Amino acid sequence: MLLPTQDRPVRRLTLGLLVAGPFLFGLWAVLLGQDGNWDLRNYHWYNAYAFLTGRWGMDVAPAQVASFYNPTLDLPFFLAAQVWPARVVEFLLGSIQGANLVLLYGLAWTVQRPATPEGRRALVALAVAVCGMVGGGQVGLLGTTFYDNVISLFVLGGLLVAIGGGQLGGEGAAWTAPGGPAFRRVALAGLLVGSGVGLKQPTIVFAVGTCAAFLLAGGAPWRRLFLSFFFGLGVLAGMALFSGHWMWFLWSHFQNPLFPYFNNVFHSPWGTPDPYRDDKFIPKGALAAAAFPFAWARDPKLVGEIIFRDYRVLAAYVVLLLTGTMALVRWVRGLFAVQAPVVDTTGHARARRYLLLAGALSYLVWLKLFAIYRYLIPLEMLAPVLILAAVSLWPAPARARGAFIALLLLLLAVTGQSGTWARVPWGERPFGAKVSEVQAPVLPRPDHTVILMTGYAPTSFLIPGFPPQIPFLRVQSYFIHPDQGDILLNRQMRQRIDQGIANGDDFYLLVAHWETWTMDQILPRYGLKGAGEPCQPVTSTLDEPMLLCRIIPLQPAAARDMNPVN
User: Fold this and answer.
1) 183, 206, 175: which is closest to 193 by C-alpha?
2) Cis omega (within 30 of 0) on the bond before 260?
3) pTM summary value
4) What confidence score (pLDDT) does residue 114 get?
């Protein structure tokens, strides 16, 4: 039971806020404006469209490297947008993201001491949950299709299942229940976390952290091992459930189940033998890593693309370091004490210890693999819960601990400042194929037309606005370039272009106006050039107009001199 049973006024207040809270966040998402983020324009919209319409084999990498991301997480948004107005879709997405409030409340309730009066326990849990929900990162993501605060539902839900279920206040069944029920519980927790990984791969940092934490949270060695083992089985099952189909697709088509990532391991001929990882945010050296939370507090560009401010992770980092230092001092003193200190081995104590370890280990894995703040949003939300759990271990009077937690959470709540990844004015029409209300020039021969794409601007969201029989080939981007030589993607595009030229097809280039330089530097590598005509605008509500330019084959002699890709 996660609600007070004796204090009815507090029970009604808590229940009302937990029911209404997610919808309030949905309204907040609408007030923030229509989402127009870079990733939505680059792949979130296109990938769902391509998956549902079977464009694989027709288009080639129009969303750059993200063309190969699992589209499963994008499907609900895309399908909802075919039916409902944009504001309704944003409200529903924001409400789903707002459901994290309920899970944070459950976690904050569970980590408090069982002897805490129920009314106070519920009010503290509410305050902690609200603090976790108004962080600079989370608010900036409300109503957006990055989905880091949707994936957090799986992470936080898995943690709540993992530490809950005991007899005293609902915690610690994994450490106190008989083996069978305990292992089934942690397998379910792992299934939730693994589902998040299956839907969005960077969630792997939380899968590793939450799994490894069982090995350190206490208990008999065999029990620790089995808890971690069954949790890991659940993670694998969740991954298979939501990404098994896509990994098989990538393997069967590109000989790499994570294509193009880790292609230095899989050596798919469709890409270069590189890892394709974005590691530019990872701090260099141990000192830089240790000071990293302080560094990005001063300069948020160290962990992402936008300006924001939030100190929740930094505060949890400092509090956990202090808590660990206190525990180390107590342990050293115990070595020289006549009587060994009493260690709390209750299920509640081990559940709280597990949660602290899971948060710390997940952070360390994130620091090693990504150091991109968006991928840490579940930990930003969880940080107030970790602070509550850690400070409760301090050797100080309960009143002093409570005052410290209240003051710190208040400071964290009022100092956060969200950033934005682009909000655009609301369109009059609903989403759907009109997500961008695309207005494209009329093409006289759509059955005999090929559209090329160059540059780095996100333009694939425009593709649903064109006749569906037209293929789109991105011959140059941050993912692919003719200088990469005879990789199969380049060869495929070369063959498609040569065939189109031989058939007398019409060719066009879809490009941002600030990247028209690619017409002179990239197209000749494929035997094409600009037609010397004015480009036509392709307008939308999500971005400034893009250009559609007619292009024609080079003269045969000129084409031979340009040494095109073989």
Assistant:
1) 206
2) yes
3) 0.95
4) 87
